[in-house]
Recover the amino acids of this structure.
């Protein structure tokens, strides 16, 4: 006794080569032509090294602050170094702002302005002093000089 026949236009369970629709077999990528995807070796380009990312994560943890992806990009782009002492001073400045009831603050530290969400303890962006004249900071309720 055989099972029910497969619906018209569809293959039965044992007949995989006849599959149609989204499950149909596709030719290998190499048969479709050359790939346009470029593979770069690890550590190439402007991406930070693992050691640098780890160092930043440890500094953030010590300072009790997080850096947004945008802030990290600005640090790298503008060549602003964040060592342990700078991270500690930034964290202390944010704690001072929090104690005064600040919600969004600009922390001026070593020639850079750090825009910080005090409530979230997150650095939103960073601007070095050479770009201050072209910058406008909005929705800021506090400024801390550290």
């Amino acid at each position: 006794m055989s099972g029910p026949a497969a619906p018209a236009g569809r293959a039965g369970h044992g007949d995989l080569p006849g599959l149609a629709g989204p499950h149909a077999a596709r030719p290998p990528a190499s048969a479709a032509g050359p790939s346009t995807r470029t593979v770069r070796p690890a550590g190439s380009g402007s991406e930070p090294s693992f050691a640098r990312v780890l160092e930043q994560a440890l500094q953030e943890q010590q300072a009790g602050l997080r850096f947004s992806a945008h802030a990290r990009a600005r640090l790298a782009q503008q060549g602003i170094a964040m060592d342990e002492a700078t991270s500690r001073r930034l964290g202390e400045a944010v704690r001072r702002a929090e104690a005064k009831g600040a919600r969004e603050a600009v922390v001026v530290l070593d020639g850079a302005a750090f825009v910080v969400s005090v409530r979230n303890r997150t650095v939103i962006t960073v601007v070095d002093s050479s770009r201050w004249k072209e910058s406008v900071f909005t929705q800021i309720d506090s400024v801390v000089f550290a």
In short: The chain has three helices and five strands. The longest strand covers residues 122-128.
